[in-house]
Design goal:
Strand content: 15-25%
Largest sheet: 4 strands, antiparallel
Shape: elongated
Number of domains: 2
Number of strands: 6
Distance between the termini: 84 Å
Oligomer: single chain
Structural class: alpha+beta
């Protein structure tokens, strides 16, 4: 029992002596962590302010023009005033003097291409692009080699070209 009392006292003394520097180190490391996180927060604050500024400017612009999202019909329009046109519709105007109406330009219909799963070896790159359209992804490896990926009904078709000719076609399940 005579040895255990000094050993216990030594352990208690070591515990008290060593915990004070450890607590100081923990405090310093916590401060460093907080400082680095506040640096990141300062950068994010700038983004927050700029986005908020954009929306504030937009809100002020809408308020000044009177179009805050819902149309205002305070008073009826004067009889000579033009009627507002609904958005998304084309407006036909009559050219003065000739009596013909000219329509706004209409986009041509999207071209329809063949199913990319029908690509075969040996066809040229011009025919490939004409029949199957532009690839979803194209990688050139060297001056004469290309790899093209086509997306056809959720299936990816991988085509390799060498000197302008299809040399291999990787189809799923083939």
């Amino acid at each position: 029992m005579s040895r255990s009392v000094p050993a216990l006292c030594g352990c208690l003394f070591a515990f008290l002596v060593l915990t004070i520097p450890a607590a100081g180190q923990a405090t310093v490391e916590a401060g460093l962590g907080a400082a680095s996180s506040s640096i990141g927060a300062a950068g994010a604050r700038g983004v927050n302010n700029s986005i908020g500024g954009v929306f504030r400017t937009l809100n002020e612009t809408l308020k000044s023009t009177g179009s805050g999202g819902t149309p205002k019909f305070d008073s009826p329009a004067p009889s000579g005033a033009a009627k507002p046109v609904a958005r998304g519709r084309s407006v036909r105007r009559t050219a003065p003097g000739n009596g013909r109406s000219s329509a706004s330009p209409v986009a041509p219909p999207a071209p329809s291409y063949e199913d990319a799963r029908q690509i075969e070896k040996g066809i040229g790159s011009e025919e490939l692009l004409r029949r199957f359209g532009p690839p979803a992804m194209q990688i050139s490896s060297g001056s004469n080699a290309q790899t093209m990926s086509y997306l056809s009904n959720g299936v990816i078709v991988q085509v390799e070209l060498q000197s302008g000719k299809v040399i291999s076609v990787a189809k799923p399940g083939a």
